[in-house]
Amino acid sequence: MTMNSSFKTMLAVAASALALAACGGSAEVASPGEGDFGNGNGNGNGNGNGNGGNGQAAADCPAGFANVGTMANGTLRNCQLPQQINGALTVPLRAGTIYSISGRTAVGTDGGVDASANTGTQGILTVEAGVTMFASGGGDYLLVNRGSQIYAEGTASQPIIFTSRQNVEGTTNENSHGQWGGIVIAGRAPQANCQLTAPVTCTGQVEGTNAFYGGGNVNDNSGRLRYVQIRYSGFEISTGNELQALTLAGVGAGTTIEYVQSYNSSDDGIEIFGGNVNLKRIVINGADDDAFDTDTGWRGGAQFGIVTQRAPNATSRSAGFEFSAAPASTPLAQRYNSQPKIANWTMVGRNSPTDAHTVAHFDTGTKATVVNSVFTSAAGSLAGCLDIADADTASVNPVFNSVFMSCGISYRASGAARSEPIFTAGANNTAKGTSTLTAPAAGVTITNQVLTFINGANETAVTPVKASSVHAAFTDTDYIGAVKNASDTWWQGWTCGLTANAKC
Predict the structure, then answer these.
(1) How far are the Cα atoms of 155, 194, 243, 320, 451 from residue 291, in angstroms, in the given order?
(2) Residue 347 vs residues 69, 326, 403, 421: alpha-carbon distances, Å
(3) How many C-beta neighbours within 10 Å does residue 314 have?
(4) Residue 107: enclosing H or E segment and its boundaries?
(5) Is residue 111 within 8 Å of residue 91, measured between CB atoms?
(6) Residue 187: its pLDDT value, please?
(7) What does R_g of the chain's alpha carbons equal in angstroms?
């Protein structure tokens, strides 16, 4: 979807710093830009609007940022973040200004596994509501190191937007993806590649970068992300080594991740490596690989999630949930396995021509608990709703309660003998229901996705379980799935790509 008149402003980011490293990275050049970021009316309706100024570029950049010219037909001053952010950097909303990241943009330096050891240099990046930030290529990404923090807190009417240069220039469409790196947060919480007895040591290296993650602090705090969109991101550094829209590596339960959207990531929407971070109110649409991928011992919870998967490419094996507990080379009895807790997700799977693209895939000993959720896929899809992929995973007895499945194929053929008895052992489960999910009233047709995610009569008829008994961070509901009915609008205003008046 190209930029339209509803996307009239930019993301503004500015700086007040206690200690700033020198600016780095390649300079941006003035762009003819075709987006409307600069002519905004400042009404902040959640579609990118939020103080677009009067259509005139700011005269300069805030202290600490590099002035690298103008873009969007000269309506925006392009101010580039330093590649190393030490100390406190505040990024205020600023008329006539848009901000960019170039290269590996790091918040702090690695603080190591032990906060008391006082290694590394802390950075604290604060991004104000309504700010938009862009990047130009796959090697451009934002990294928050262990011991540092990010506070990116938008609002329902003024989300913070991280996007691509092409999006700012108005050249993206519903199939665009992989145009910049994404956001990586590394923390000091436990993960499978750590020795967790004293002295705690960690050898985990974040996928897609050279940052390290993990430690012994379950409640480690890497900051807050609230009302944030991450658009057109994800990039393959090398085979099997990719940047996602949002990577959470060893992130602790003291961190807040809620009201976060991944839109059209070329790899996963969100991937979690270990840690204990909890997530709420998540939207992942258009991921080219997995929507929500977990690995190396994540033991947190995620409640209220909408996933709409894009049509598959010919070769990838992708899923809505792809939950692993590697390293599989460690015997299961000694493995620090993943133990995800999931409640109130609606997973709308791919219209797949093969059975490789499951809606929910669990492997390598993942001990998942999934409650009050809906798994479905497009009519005619050959993707199974559920796959318990191996004996290790079957042996740890994943739990499913009050899960409504409405796929043409309930269980992927290769895992059906494991999947069916585990699923049917749960309470209030439906293995082969009929979907009555509906699309938003102002829904838009996206050719590569199915946008029916609002409960209908059949989903409403399922009795939910008490979610707070599964995880202390969960809220009890009287319904299953992410969206109770058409009056349940938690996902509106701050997201894009789900309704006609909220284009990306």
Answers:
(1) 24, 26, 13, 5, 15
(2) 43, 24, 11, 21
(3) 7
(4) strand 104-107
(5) no
(6) 97
(7) 22
Hey, which bits of 312-459 come out as E strands?
321-323, 341-348, 360-362, 369-376, 384-388, 399-406, 409-411
Spell out a b/e string for 440-473, using b for 16 or more CB atoms within 10 Å of the CB, else e.
beeebebebbbbbbbbeebbeebebbebeebbeb
Residue-level pLDDT at 191: 94
Span 129-177, pLDDT tens digits? 999 999 999 999 999 999 999 999 999 999 999 999 999 999 999 989 9
C-alpha span between 88 and 101 (Å, rounded):
17
- Contact in structure between 72 and 99 (CB atoms under 8 Å): no
Q: Taking a C-beta distance cutoff of 8 angstroms, is the pair 213, 112 a contact? A: no
CA–CA distance, 387 with 409 (Å, rounded to integer):
11
What are the residue ranges in the chain where pLDDT is below 50? 1-52
pLDDT score, position 387? 97
The predicted structure's pLDDT at residue 44: 34
Question: How far is it, in rounded angstroms, from Cα 331 to Cα 183?
Answer: 32
What is the distance between the alpha carbons of residues 202 and 222, in angstroms, rounded to a whole number?
Answer: 17
Which tokens in the block code for residue 365? Answer: 């000993």
Mapped onto helix, strand or coil, the DSSP state of residue 457 is helix
384 is written with which tokens?
Answer: 């199974």
Contact call for residues 236 and 267 (beta carbons, < 8 A)? yes
pLDDT of 315:
54
